[in-house]
Amino acid sequence: MSNESLANLLKEERRFAPPAELAAAANVTAAAYAQASEDRLGFWAEQARRLTWAVEPTETLDWSNPPFAKWFADGKLNVAYNCVDRHVEAGNGDRVAIHFEGEPGDGRSITYAQLKDEVSQAANALLELGVRKGDRVAVYLPMIAEAVVAILACARIGATHSVVFGGFSADAVASRIQDAQAKLVITADGGYRRGKPSALKPAIDEALTKVDGVEHVLVVRRTGQEVSWTEGRDVWWHELTARQSTEHTPEAHDAEHPLFILYTSGTTGKPKGILHTSGGYLTQASYTHHAVFDLKPESDVYWCTADIGWVTGHSYIVYGPLSNGATQVIYEGTPDTPHQGRFWEIVQKYGVTILYTAPTAIRTFMKWGDDIPAKFDLSSLRVLGSVGEPINPEAWIWYRDHIGAGKAPIVDTWWQTETGAMMISPLPGVTETKPGSAQRALPGIAATVVDDEAREVPNGSGGYLVLTEPWPSMLRTIWGDDQRYIDTYWSRFEGRYFAGDGAKKDEDGDIWLLGRVDDVMLVSGHNISTTEVESALVGHPSVAESAVVGATDATTGQAIVAFVILRGTATDSPELVEELRAHVGRTLGPIAKPKQIKVVGELPKTRSGKIMRRLLRDIAEGREIGDTTTLADSTVMNLIQAQLPPAGSES
Ligand code: WT7
Predict the structure, then answer these.
(1) Letter string b/e over residues 573-610, b meaning 16 or more CB atoms within 10 A of that residue's CB
(2) Phi and psi (nearest 5°) for 425?
């Protein structure tokens, strides 16, 4: 976002005080900020006591070998026990944990007591397949309750899960299975999307022709569609789990035991396996879910619309809500199946009180029209959350007015796969919210904005967002690559974690996020690296060279625009462009398909051969071309422009 648009945005002096009723009964009050700033570690030690430990930790933070942190290192706990069994033991076994809503309209409600049985059976099933503590398990599932059960079963036996988003292609899955050296893959025949069964198992079958080491594939039957079967390797989930005992005694694992790996795009192409561990991660996931959503487990119905394949699904579908004993909705499908009011119908059906979704979804709902949510009873909603990218003030106001009846507070939560849990966000019972700002670091979190020389910027100025103190749910490393962990996050500013985001502090010191400062694109809330898309394009026989940029897009935040130079024999045609888009979809997954592909004769490069994406973004966004003085050949931009139709003339 440019400085002018930020200035315009900041001119909107709208502030919204928390509803009095909510503030009066809020889980967390302003006192938390004071308490945490007085004694940050004491504050986190207290939050760790939200959990049930088999061995209580006496240490809080070990930062003797930065940037490698240990939190609560001498404590032991079982994460799945904390998410399931203890609620049953506390007498809440009959409380619904999950209302599963399938896309076709089927569904089931699972109580905590039933969840305990299912997780125990799944844990016993994993053991029968030879999975042991410390092994890695890849999970490639649709948004069904079994995804939660599978994840918790891994956590229970101390196997490290690596969930791969169900929209990723066979190649993307293969590289992630390979990197983590997973021994087991849990998948499904398919899931329902846009009114039809959408296959998942073929991608696993293909991926497993490319990697070794996977002993079994455990297959959930969801759609009943035909699957190919490898005898001895493939096992039906329902057959294996049904014959397991519902008794499984959870073992206590070290607080620093690896809980999961989750892959996120890096600028150098190879995805980074972000490693999260147990005690610190669960402490912050649990605390933030309690504080930021003001969750009252006895009365709230919570719904996070994210996919389980992203970190939001891990922290705010599985670990945060379940550790807090919440009742939640899990929805399998798309928001417009079978009609554009599906989300609102679900809110009405289950009486959802807390909704957590993404700006890209909110902008889509705005486009579909105010009349659609207006047809449903949304009066149960009392807190609304946003995550994934900066939320523009228009969308923020629309969300509040049309979904939140003009009164539900909006919590714009900034965090990352790497941070594991929320870091910057309003508190719904405390903060006077400002449309478009994530506002303030949560209690116990230290964030600021610095300039190029690592100096903290004054209020009213912009720079780079950094985190200045370690936090419990921080990534511990990049799986198998400690050096890359240091280089990526801790080298730009001495002793500080650099988040990769630009940010600005307003006159009150509130933080406004300005998007990624590097070349990672943010499409519908998902990080996609330009390099990954470029290398996919160059992998096609017709493409010689490519450069990819993210162009501002009203719906998806950023849209992928690719510039390609064809090989000698290939010629530009709509068919070829379509074929290239499909090729990227196959290589990386549909989310990475470029919205536009422009065939050009040259690409703008510096003398050292680095592509000047800034200039291509100018073209993609239809602006006048900026400074071209560092180009190796300054005539290139004229050539490119002459070849392209004027901006806005294509979709
Ligand atoms: C990047 C992290 C956090 C889970 C989903 C994405 C952007 C995230 C916000 C927000 C502005 C945001 C940042 C961040 N981002 N939330 N509330 N306001 N930007 O996880 O794929 O690891 O992406 O998403 O650029 O660095 P992720």
Answers:
(1) eeebbeebbebbbbbbbebbbbbebbbbeebbbeeeee
(2) -175, 150
Count of domains observed in the chain: 1
**What gap in Å lies between CA 422 and CA 472, rounded to an integer?**
11
pTM score of the predicted model: 0.85
Assigned domain for 375 exists: no
What backbone phi and psi angles, to 5 degrees, belong to 169? -80, 170
**What are the E-state strand segments in 482-635?**
497-505, 511-516, 520-523, 526-529, 543-553, 557-566, 596-599
In a domain, 594, yes or no: yes
Looking at residue 1, what is its pLDDT?
37
Confirm or reject: Cβ of 499 under 6 Å from ligand 1: yes
Q: State yes or no: pLDDT of 518 exceeds 80.
A: no
Rounded CA separation 384/166 (Å): 26
Residues making up the chain, counted from first to last: 651
Pocket lining: 48 vs ligand 1, CB cutoff 6 Å = no
Of 343, 152, 371, 332, the C-alpha closest to 241 is 152
- Is the alpha carbon torsion for 566, 568, 569, 571 positive or negative? positive
Q: Which of 434, 527, 528 to mutate to test the pocket of ligand 1 (most atoms within 8 A of CB)?
A: 527
What is the CA(516)–ligand 1 centre distance, in A? 9
C-alpha distances (whole Å) from 639 to each of 43, 209, 382, 600, 634 are 60, 44, 55, 8, 10
Sign of CA dihedral 569, 573, 575, 580: positive
pLDDT for res 649: 40
User: Helices 530-538 and 574-588, interaxial angle, to 10°?
Assistant: 120
Rounded Cα–Cα distance for residues 478 and 486 (Å):
9
The Cβ of residue 642 has, within 10 Å, a number of other Cβ atoms equal to 9
Q: How many CA atoms lie within 13 A of 562 on its CB side?
A: 29
Q: How many CB atoms lie within 10 A of CB 348?
A: 17
pLDDT tens-digit series, residues 253-290: 999 999 999 998 754 557 899 999 999 999 999 999 99
Phi, psi (deg, nearest 5) at residue 637? -65, -35
pLDDT of residue 519: 66
C-alpha 224: how far from chain center = 29
| Residue 552 within a domain | yes
| Residue 424, H or E segment | none
Our answer on whether the CB atom of 425 is closer than 6 Å to any ligand 1 atom is no
CA-516 nearest atom, ligand 1: 25
The verdict on the CB of residue 307 being under 6 Å from ligand 1 is: no
Closest ligand 1 atom to residue 425 Cα is 17
415 in contact with ligand 1, CB cutoff 6 A: yes
Instruction: Domain of residue 532: give its range.
Output: 524-643
Q: How far is the CA of 535 from the centre of ligand 1 (A)?
A: 24
For residues 514 and 508, is the Cβ–Cβ distance under 8 A?
Answer: no
582, part of any domain: yes
Task: Judge whether 317 and 143 are in contact, CB under 8 Å.
Answer: no
Residue type (1 letter), 301: V
Contact 344, 372 (CB under 8 A): yes
SS3 157: helix
Ligand 1 atom with the smallest distance to the CA of 415 is: 3
The CATH number of the domain holding residue 632 is 3.30.300.30
Q: What residues contact residue 541 under an 8 Å CB cut-off, 6+ apart?
A: 567, 570
Say which DSSP state 16 is in. Answer: B
CA distance 254 to 72: 9
What is the distance in A from the centroid of ligand 1 to the CA of 453?
Answer: 24
